[in-house]
Amino acid sequence: MNTPSEDYHALLARHDAMRLRRRILAPSDSRREPWSANAPATYDGTADQRLISESVPLVGPLEELIAELYGLLFERHPYLRSLFPESMAFQQAHLAAAFRCLIGDLHRPDEIVRVFGQLGRDHRKLGVRPAHFEAFEGALTEALRLRAGARWTGALEQAWLRMLRLAVSAMVRGADEAIAEPPSWEATVTSHELRAPGLAVLRVRPHQPYVFEAGQYASLESPLLEQAWRPYYLARAPHPDGELEFHVRARGAGGVSDALVHGTREGGAVRLSAPRGALTLPGRLPPADLLLIASGTGWAPMKALLQRIDADRSRAHRVRLLLGPAAPQESGAAAEEMYDVAYLEAFRRERPWLTVAAAEATDARFAGAARQHAFLALAPETSTAAGVRAVSARLVAAGVPAAHIHHEAGGIVAITETSVSTTRTGLLSA
Questions:
Q1: Is 21 helix (H, G, I), strand (E, B) or coil?
Q2: Among 98, 99, 7, which Cα is nearest to 52's?
Q3: Residues in contact with 255: Cβ distance below 8 Å, sequence separation at least 6, in sequence order
Q4: DSSP one-letter code for 338
Q5: I need a surface site. Which of 67, 71, 199, 201 has the fewest CB within 10 A?
Q6: pTM of the predicted model, to two decimals?
Q7: How many of the other CB atoms lie within 10 Å of CB of 150?
Q8: What is the pLDDT along the chain (430 residues), one digit of tens a residue?
Q9: 401 and 110 in contact (C-beta within 8 Å)?
Q10: Residue 281's CB: how many other CB atoms inside 10 A?
Q11: Which of 150, 155, 162, 148 lies closest to 64 in space, CA to CA?
């Protein structure tokens, strides 16, 4: 027997199929979504950015505003509670980061449209619909009024609503553009190996074809934590057998990573989002040397990229792989052993074009890096966007053109059970 969640997502899948058919058959001028009428046709957010920034002390701290918002949302619309995980702490932190992202980038509406359009595509796996955003807007408006009291004004309210509608219209449009894509994929765990304390390597096989590129990532949901999703790099290039590989480190926070490491076994089930990410080989990469830099489970996308490079030796690249530990070691502590060393050693012995070195004294290793393409994936469990920027800056100083440095710009490296990225958060994401 299906669970209510499974029935709901099956219903949404049928609804999307009907919408896609209508969109294909309908004239182009009749395809506009109702929510788009609420979004400003052109928007200069500089003035609203100033107003909203000045109003934050009236309604903040943001974390308290968000707690009140969700309380009102679930009180007015109890059915929405099922779209969220049991614990709301992580979601509330996500939403706080989303608001900070919106306010900070409001003077760059094109960037907001780009980022939140991607979020809209990602939100399809949660079953979010435009009507849910309308309920969210109502709860936010009520929470703002309650928090500010008599000091609240119509001008402030309209500025907040314009900001929200800009983001939401981008999300709705992004979701609509991805309507031909499944919102999620069911998959069976075919292998689960504990490679180190708290670190597992999983193989899963999706029940439907899953098209992706080496270097991308996917979000996973465990049946132990419904509606809670976390992103993990795909650690295997596309293969005819259809199996996907993920490297997961438990964080001890009781989240998705812990469920995948400690609560998942061979034969179990997981759900996958669509693949995302920019850490892929450019289609027209010139025959320059490649520099791959990774730490911890940041090795996962590098493993997939090496497999992809090996499959296309017509490019004749020389590749340097710099590997670092998962986290800075305490003074006198032994460095953590690389958990996939047997695979890497066997792979390296048969490929003279690959050089592997420890990523200690990294600045020295960057010498001669000019005219290379560099791919960077620091350990998601310990990295920060600032750390990625710092390594990128050292690469530029060593002569690597900024356009040749490939990484997730503050994205997956900062999404864990204990940290939040401002570029991968959402208004209704769980």
A1: helix
A2: 99
A3: 90, 225, 228, 230, 417
A4: P
A5: 71
A6: 0.72
A7: 6
A8: 555 555 444 444 444 444 434 444 444 444 445 445 455 557 889 999 999 999 999 999 999 999 999 999 999 999 888 878 777 887 888 889 889 989 999 999 998 998 888 888 887 877 777 788 889 999 999 999 999 999 999 999 999 999 999 999 998 898 888 887 888 999 999 999 999 999 999 999 999 999 999 999 999 999 998 878 899 999 999 999 999 999 999 988 788 999 999 999 999 999 999 998 889 988 766 667 899 999 999 999 999 999 999 988 666 678 999 998 765 443 343 445 689 999 999 999 999 999 999 876 444 455 555 568 899 998 765 566 677 888 888 888 888 888 888 888 544 433 333 332 333 334 443 3
A9: no
A10: 19
A11: 148
Instruction: Output the six-digit token pair for 357.
Output: 């070195």
Find where tokens 């800009």 sit.
166
By C-alpha distance, which of 204, 235, 230, 206 is closest to 219? 230
Q: Which residue do the tokens 């193989």 mark?
A: 203
